[in-house]
Design goal:
Blueprint lengths: L19 H20 L8 H18 L1 H4 L16 H10 L21 H14 L17 H11 L1 H4 L6 E2 L5 E2 L7 H10 L14 H16 L13 H27 L1
Antiparallel strand pairs: 1-2
Amino acid sequence: MTNQSETPKPRKRGRRHPLAWAALVAGGLMGTGGAYALATLPAGAETPAAVEAQLAQGEALFQANCATCHGLDLEGTEDGPTLIGVGAAAVDFQVGTGRMPMAQTGPQAQVKPVQFTQEQITALAAYVASVSPGPGIPDEELLQSGRDLAEGGELFRINCAMCHNVAGAGGALTQGKYAPPLTGVSRAHIYEAMVTGPQNMPVFNDANIEPEQKANIIAYLKFIEQAPSVGGANLGSLGPVSEGLFVWIGALGLIVGITIWLTAKSN
């Protein structure tokens, strides 16, 4: 029998593992770091789940609207070229300007009203870029004003004016093709056209024209687009041939009119 008068011995506390404090500190640091990362996440940044959802949306849009011509695997068909390596920039330009999807086949894709929202265009571009890398959509800082207009004008006249006209008014090419006017085109789409070479346009990669130089060209185009015509009506800015023809037709019509008036007066 036990002695009831004997006081019970205190229960021993369990010893803590030697690494318990290290695990506690590590857990605290990880929790604090994760909370800070979520709190300071930029507004435009996307989580992996959001990226996955965007790619799924882009793939569904591509299969429903583009795969008929470009193929389910983006390798192209008899009706459309391959999209392997075109990158997000080509998709953003072609779809964002309404050229794609094409309404009908022809020498050149026509500009028409855009058929997708900007969110859908971004999803399409992200999906095509995820299959095969290529030129990306330009950063906003490359599209800002305050550039070297003199250099931009010089580069434009050397590389672009032979097709697009010195004033960016566009011009005719061979076999029913044409260089479109550059007035009213967004800065991003001009940049994307230079790096992707749509239609008959050559590709101006960073080895040909540096990104800063591309930005200067865009700034020059926007400057001449907004600058007033000091000589009066610009007549479409198509150059001296059209202006001379306009003057010739006007002067000839005036001479014919005066001749008819004098003849009628003498009779």
